[in-house]
Target: Translation initiation factor IF-2
Amino acid sequence: MEFIKTGRYKIMLKQKKQKEKKKIIKKTPALKMKKAAHKVADAHTKPVKKTIALVTTKVKRVTRAKATGRKAVVWSPLAKAKAANLKKGKVKLVAPVIKIKPAIEKIITPGPRIEVVILPKPAVKKEIPAPKIISKPEAIKIEPKIEVKAAPVALAKAPPTAGWPAVELKELELELPITVKDLAIKLGEKPSLVIKGLMDMKMMVGINQALDETVVSKICEKYHCKIKKALGKEELTLSMHRVRDEAKDLKPRSPVVTFMGHVDHGKTSLLDVIRKTKVAESEYGGITQHIGAYRVVLARGEITFLDTPGHEAFTAMRLRGASIADIVVLVVAADDGIMPQTEEAIDHARVAGVPIIVAINKIDKAGADIDRVKKQLAKLDLNPEDWGGKTIVVPVSAKTGEGIDNLLEMIILESQMLELKANPNRLARGIVIEAKMSQGRGPVVTLLVQNGALRLNENIIVGNFYGKIRAMFNDHGQSVTSALPSVPVGVLGVSGVPAAGEQFFAIAEEKEAKEIASLRMEKERDRQVKSVKRMSLEDLHAQIQARKIKELKLIIKADVQGSLEAIRGTLTKMNVSEIKLDFIHAGVGNVNSSDVMLAVVSDALILGFNVAVDDLAKELMVKEGVDVKNYNTIYELANDIKAAIEGMLEPKIKRIFLGRAEVRKIFQLSHAGRVAGCFVTKGKFNRSCMVDLVRNEEVVFKGKFSSLKRFKDDVREVAEGFECGISLAGFDQVIEGDIIEAYEEERIARKL
Model:
């Protein structure tokens, strides 16, 4: 008994049970059915696995049919269709009948005879198309050409190029800066191709790198598109101020007049007589140190006066005064005549495009010579009216008051000729005259309203700052609740001290004002990170090549008057009708800060002849990015300017014919779009040449190839008598019968 319980006995017992289990499995009907299915599979060519599954399913259906006492015949879908046609007498059904007698009758109990009928699908014979025989080019039979006048096709407008007419470009509205990926989506192009185009421009960028407006413009030009900058948050908010007023809403406004001239020529004293106040006494040393805005009420109207400093240290203030004034009153002392700062004031007024009225002051002095001053004015193209010119010249005396009424009358008359108008029934906008930090009151900003009406408790945005107006006061220090156009007011409540000359806008919502201020602060930080560079003579060539400049502005400083006149005479002889040579300012002496500031405002070149640069001007040059070119000989200066002018002239374009091809077939490819199958009838085609697409004797497209192929290969050249496949860049409306002409453009530089 102990032996029976050993492990060896247990193993033997387990093996015995497995053998008995295998015997039971061999007797099961399912195994016998599988054997029958294998026999069926051997009799036919169908795969074994499909046959086993099919027969097993059919046997199950037969078993269910026997249980109900019905005959079961299993049909395939094809057999059912054939059976239907057989009933209609269309076809004869001949199908192999497989009787599974030996395998199934042992499983199923005796009963009615059951037959399983399998109708296999007939083999489908695939028809192999006969190979197409392509004849040689000589054997091509061309049918007579039938003229088909197609509907008018919109011309594909490529970028304007010298030699053929300018065309319209597709407009894309983009938010700048934009990433390479987003730009590719807008252009409908693959990002890899856009990056390749940037690499051709010698720019290595990634797909998520942001592109600025200049780069995006160049890329869009290659795809025959032009960009339209989408309006941002700031533009949308301030768009109401850009809406033009209707004529019925405009009302006359008073003129804004600024007094300009040389130091100590009596500007503030003259203004003091007009205002009937002692402004000059409150200034340090009797010299005006900041812009003052004063409003004068006269019998015939109201005038707003801006008093600008006259000496060199405050040149920037004088620039600001000229830019916001409607009329400039140039004050010239009758005993001193025209001085250096007087000429600068004239140049600044001309740059701003402001009409000039000359007031010859100090006529009561013993050494006064009015005719000498008029002669000097005539040399500066300010010919007086009594000498047959157009400049109003009024002799005045700030000490005796002589000629003051005549001067005011001339100002009113000039303003009426200008027809100055504004709309007082809208939100205000204007300009900052001056700003300072006052102890106890915070930032105090002097504003000049240019349009609309500024009211108490309104929200304003000023430069990078915002604020809600808590208090307003006029030039006499009196509190006011509103300010109409051409009225200067001081306001409290701005969050910081803005720069003079900044524009301000009244905004309905304070939240929007805060958002705009924060956006501007962020842009200012980004701008400070980037280096600022003004135009230099070296940079001029690049802009000339881009055809951006048709006017050359110059500021010339020489050591003596004779050299200055010689330089001006030499450069004037180079002037041509296509290029305007504009002398913004010419003077004797070193290059000073005033010259640098004038170059910044007018974007002019500073040319020096045997002169130095002041220390203050050097600091300003570094800050503003202005370059001064100094010469020792007139010929060197003249040659540089001559080269610049020649580069600005449009070159002569010579067109060289290369070849002509006829479009005989259009192919629509999934990966390449529409490809024109062409036959070169004359000349040859180069991959880089320019092409014209001619239809019905009219040019409908001018541009370049996007691809040139022979069979499936890209080629650089296709000679006469050969076929080729052509795709045009930016144009896919080619039809059969079109003519493609290839040519090259040769640019011939023009010389003076």
User: Anything to note?
Assistant: The domain at 429-527 is CATH 2.40.30.10 (Elongation Factor Tu (Ef-tu); domain 3). The longest strand covers residues 652-669. The CA atoms of residues 263 and 310 lie 5 Å apart. The mean pLDDT is 76.
